[in-house]
Amino acid sequence: MNELFDLKIGYASPKNPVALASMAGITDSRFASGFKNAGLIILGGYNLDKATNEAARKEIERGRKEFVSDNPMEFLKTELEAAGKINTTIAVNARAASLEPFLQAAEIARKSGAILEINAHCRQPEMLQLGAGEALLKDVKRLSEYIHEIKKTGVELSVKIRANVVNDVELAKTVEKAGADIIHIDAMHPQGVDIGVIKRVRNSTGLFIIGNNSVVDFESAKEF
């Protein structure tokens, strides 16, 4: 039964193809403990440096939920230690305004047996001003450099993107060439959900794919 799906992502082996995606201000280790049957739990999004934590505080002031910390790396270690008791594969979605915090987080994640996920998805203006989140989709040279350098740590690496911001297939090819292991696609479309983007990326790359957006029951999950 344990070999029913045989999913492997480097040193990570999700027990089934169900993933709990990160939700800023919600998906921490405590929240995740209620989803022990998921094959993959993605914590976060967490903010890895002073700049992104200050941006998150501004977002909280206008009513958004966010995770903030005065000591981001210690907070990350604590969260991964707590999540390790859930007995499933863990990833951590993170934002930073520069490369160095990602490198530190990658070392922490690798030592915990967790996957690191670059947040190239957040579209909050406070993050975009820092060049974080979705801003990376429009700066693929920097995103590629991040991926290349982070992979030197030996961590298994995911990149979370928002669909239909740039050319998704070309973006996925770039992400794969840079060395990432996983692409996590929020299949957002101005008119609803673009499930076709999952197929287009699947047919164009060898990346492990996580599909996300409006999965609310078995039927919608099966579509993805």
Concise structural overview:
36% of the residues lie in helices and 19% in strands. By secondary structure, the chain is of the alpha/beta class.
Which features does this protein show?
two-stranded antiparallel sheet, 19% strand, single chain, alpha/beta, 224 residues, globular, 9 helices
Report on this structure.
With 224 residues, this protein is α/β, with parallel strands linked by helices. It has helices at residues 29-32, 50-61, 72-83, 99-111, 125-128, 140-151, 168-178, 196-202, 218-223; strands at 19-20, 40-47, 89-95, 115-120, 157-162, 182-186, 188-189, 192-193, 208-212. A 7-stranded parallel beta sheet has the order 1-2-3-4-5-6-9. Strands 7-8 form a two-stranded antiparallel ribbon. The chain is globular. It starts with 18 loop residues before the first strand and ends with a helix.
Note the overall shape.
globular
Counted beta strands = 9
Helix content: 25-40%
Find the structural class using helix and strand composition. Answer: alpha/beta
Write the layout of secondary structure elements.
Elements: E1 19-20, H1 29-32, E2 40-47, H2 50-61, H3 72-83, E3 89-95, H4 99-111, E4 115-120, H5 125-128, H6 140-151, E5 157-162, H7 168-178, E6 182-186, E7 188-189, E8 192-193, H8 196-202, E9 208-212, H9 218-223
Parallel strand pairs: 1-2, 2-3, 3-4, 4-5, 5-6, 6-9
Antiparallel strand pairs: 7-8
